[in-house]
Amino acid sequence: MALRRRGALLAVLLAAGCGSAASTSPPPAAVAASGELVYERVVRGNPDVYVSPAGGGVERRLTDGAAEESLPRWTRDGRAVLFTSNRTGNWQLWEVPAAGGPPRRVRTNGAREWQADWSPDGSTLAFLSNEGGPESLWLMDKATGVSRILVRHDQDSIFGNPHWSPDGRRIVFSSNVRFGHQIYVVEVASGEARRVSPVTSGGCEPRFHPDGTKIVYVSRRLWRKKSRLVEHELESGEERVLVDWPALNYDPVYSPDRSEIAFVSNITGEYALYRQRLSDGKSWRVTFGPGAVRNPDYRPN
């Protein structure tokens, strides 16, 4: 696929069907989250990576400049943030220290590489790349730098959001290979993948629960003006809807303590970051001010 700006790529995902009201006040102290959230914020048309307290507060900007910096994920030790940038003219993978400082390039080649996640033990990087052919799901060994294809579909397939299971044996991701965007789980050892989302509704942006027994993902039928966040039990296939606001709700991720999810919604007209407690469905807005917010991730404990 030819190099395109991130907005055009996002439009492709949304066109494929993916890509109760919340309180707008900060949560009470009894439920204020500890730790931090990383996310991208778009200011004057340019996305950069920011970090703020999960319970709300002053945010810190980790990247700066004219390039687009997006899709952040914490490293497993919480000391750095992995992100995607086009600062070299092509989408490539970078890391920046959580305390701030110059980013370093993770991989160097002529391919488009993005949407990456480190394995639980920090030894293997899962990422999307179109090196040598269509976009595919790749793995890279950190110690040797050797990479290999784990999943490759057909020439026009669009992949999305790989995320490791807590035990490091599986990766969940999305692909539009057959029925529009669907959620798949692949066994890392064998490369065998199975679809877990209902074929009639599909899904994208999956993330594993910290106990590895379920995933959360975005369910949005083609061209609909709203999307739901759905929790899927991997063994039974049972599902429950976590968020069904009359809006586009995206980017769900579980907190490390399993008590809540963070996600973004445009229910107020512009994407902002929210937290939702899983025990009772109570939600709070985290980010305010100008600029859309996307792709949150909790800092590991």
Short description:
This protein is mostly beta strands. The chain contains one helix and 24 strands.
List keywords for this structure.
single chain; 3% helix; 1 helix; 44% strand; 301 residues; 4-stranded antiparallel β-sheet; mainly beta; Neuraminidase
Structure description:
A hairpin with a 6-residue loop joins strand 9 and strand 10. The chain has one helix at residues 6-15; strands at residues 36-43, 46-53, 60-61, 69-74, 80-85, 92-97, 104-105, 113-118, 124-129, 136-141, 147-152, 159-164, 170-175, 182-187, 193-195, 204-208, 214-219, 228-233, 239-243, 249-254, 260-265, 272-277, 283-285, 293-298. The longest helix has 10 residues, at 6-15. It is mostly beta strands and 301 residues long. The strands form six sheets. Strands 3-2-1-24 form a four-stranded antiparallel β-sheet, with no helix packed on it. A four-stranded antiparallel β-sheet has the order 4-5-6-7, with no helix packed on it. A four-stranded antiparallel β-sheet has the order 8-9-10-11, with no helix packed on it. The chain has one helix and 24 strands.
